[in-house]
Amino acid sequence: MKTSVKLASYLLQSKAIIIDHANPFTWASGWFSPIYCDNRKTLSYPEIRDFIRDSFIRQIPASFGHPDIIAGVATGAIAHAALVAEKMELPLIYVRSSQKSHGMENLIEGDISVGQTVVLIEDLVSTGGSSLNAVNTLREAGLNVLGMAAIFTYGFAKAIENFKNAGIDLVSLGNYHDLIDQAVNTGYIQPEFLETLSDWRKDPGQWSPKP
Fold first, then answer.
1. pTM above the 0.90 mark?
2. Can you spell out the DSSP letters for 192-209?
3. Exposure string for 124-150, b = 16+ CB within 10 A, e = fewer
4. Distance, CA of 90 to chain centre
5. Does 208 reside within a domain?
């Protein structure tokens, strides 16, 4: 079984991803969505978190070579990045979403040197905005960002465009299409719901649940 299909099964099994067309969720961005993803839940399941870790360890060298540092995007990806860094025997850093208001006022936590290469680990990519903010933070600190590896991406056209414009390669262990296929095949959702999901994914920023 390929990685993305097995991951889809794990995400549904652990309720890291919930699909509910009758009671849509509201994202932090204000978008309505029939899908909610919280990959932090996978950390509670040793078999799943080990699968994610080992999949990253295979994917990162294949896509980006061997970085000097593994970085996690706060907060959802920090634990996953720590697991990967430990297994790869690499230093770990993480990137805050906003600057601390006390102490050293860091955006980057951990030891770095100008010119080091780094691969960022992200738990979820939607539009890519917060992920690319982390990329910019590392670049401004003088690090060479080789790319980003995510647990899951919705594959929105806006995200693809944003990563292309930023000159950053994104690889993801899981994807939307395999998730939906797995949800249908296992009876998690019914085929008649596919039209709703298709409408949402075409224009998620403007989609709203039907009354």
1. yes
2. GGHHHHHHHHHSTTT---
3. bbbbbebbbebbebbeebebebbbbbb
4. 20
5. no
How far is 97 from 204, CA to CA, in rounded Å?
Answer: 23
DSSP string, 112-178: --TT-EEEEEEEEESSSHHHHHHHHHHHHTT-EEEEEEEEEE---HHHHHHHHHHT--EEEEEEHHH
- CATH number, domain with residue 125: 3.40.50.2020
* CA 191, 3, 81, 48 torsion-angle sign: positive
Lowest mean pLDDT among 26-30, 72-76, 104-108: 104-108
Question: Between 205 and 45, where is the model more confident?
Answer: 45
Evaluate whether residue 178 is within a structural domain: yes
Q: Reading across the β-sheet that carries 117-125, which strands appear in turn? A: 108-109, 92-95, 69-73, 117-125, 144-153, 170-175
Number of domains into which the chain is organized: 1
